[in-house]
């Protein structure tokens, strides 16, 4: 009887050990280690674009107001047009949405479409373009 | 010079840098500009005018772009810690979108590159809006992180090539306030070769290829492209599509007799494997358990879908030129085809039924003149269809057993772009 109890106890202890040892090994594998990995951030590759300086004065200049189609952007620019005409001598204000309605598109999306819009606006030879990006 | 609202100025700046202008003249107006009365927007213009006048005559470009670094090979980095700590480090460094990931060790990346014949230094393009250079090696890095198998690489590469097409409007899709997502439809033998989910729950969980390719696409958009919220990703709410792109294979085995698979509609051979991507809004689910004729079924569609599903439809008329996807469930497809209808007849009947009266158009939308030009004189009762022509309704057989179909409206400026899948 006593022998049997001893046998059972030894069997139980060894079973528990068998279960725990691999667990302790795997938790040891979870300890700190040195990782070497490749940088997933990548490198930015942008072709620089030259921006023209603004004119020193707006007198006698042509200003293009460009609206992208978002709500109230045109209303904002309409008011800017009134203020420009009132405060600057011989200024000419052109509204893109009146002369180039194809540029009224808030989600240009690609460089190519933006360039199309820029070309359409450039045809009017403005000295400065003021755009409103509303939301 | 650019006038932007305070909430969106950072996106405007990021966009100008991404387009090559390190410095641009900005005047910031307190948010919002839209959805306020005329008097309020004019007051905002009055307050901004002195700053506009000053910037118009005094601003000079100052900042320059940093010098470009070599795009290949990717730099090796090291970190000491547990896998959990490494995941946290990735999140802190901006190399993660919050889901667990597998470390892109050089060994794992080398193994992943075996899934393609492309050279690791091949440049696929610059991922917007940050314009991060995406080489094949960089694709493999993200494929490892997302848990892809090497054999998924050709599908992932084809999907990314399609996204680089300007017609895919990847920039708009990743920076919008909308809850938009990349939809990827796979066709051809590749579905069965690599186990793309294409039947029951095709776009859902449990498909390793769909899940890991979809995860890799979004990792690349957010990490290489830098499109993370709150800026430059301006998603107002966001959604699951921001983590994993929406991917399914067409259920080609459930195609009704005489109906062509989607890749054949797109002009490819039946034996070819094809990936088609499109930027979409979350789909509308047509739950029709009851119709026993195509006519009844179409009546359901006519109440469910309209041009108002997407902002572009009513306000920016250009969206009416964009294809929309009808992901027709196999049982709905059988109902229609069982009555002897061809795909073309279904498409045309759908287009004729799913219309809304012009009076539903939101007030204040631009381009109403263009709408009138396209449809002729309109009264408030004139029914306006979803698209200009029935051909812009693309039909794909999607999913398994059940009484559902789905309708994906495109995000403005996004067209479906297809690329053959090549090793």
Q: H/E element string of chain B? A: EHEHEHHEEHHHEHHEHEEHHEHHEHEEEE
Proportion of residues in β-strands of chain B: 15-25%
Low-confidence stretches of chain A: none
Mean pLDDT of chain A: 83
Number of strands of chain B: 15
The amount of beta strand of chain A, in percent, is: 15-25%
The main sheet of chain B comes to:
4 strands, mixed
Can you walk through the features of this model?
The complex is a heterodimer of chains A (135) and B (423). Chain A has helices at residues 2-29, 73-87, 96-99, 111-122, and strands at residues 33-38, 62-67, 92-95, 128-133. With 135 residues, chain A is α/β, with parallel strands linked by helices. Chain A has a domain at 62-132. Chain A has a three-stranded parallel β-sheet. The longest helix of chain A has 28 residues, at 2-29. Chain A is elongated, with a radius of gyration of 36 Å. Chain B is an alpha/beta fold and 423 residues long. Chain B folds into three domains: 2-58, no CATH class; 83-254, no CATH class; 281-420, no CATH class. In chain B, 35% of the residues lie in helices and 17% in strands. Chain B has 15 helices and 15 strands. In chain B, the strands form five sheets. In chain B, strands 7-6-8-15 form a four-stranded mixed β-sheet. In chain B, strands 9-14-10-13 form a four-stranded mixed β-sheet. In chain B, a hairpin with a 4-residue loop joins strand 4 and strand 5 (132-135). Chain B starts with a strand and ends with a strand. The chains are: A alpha/beta (135), B alpha/beta (423). The interface between A and B is large, with 62 and 106 residues.
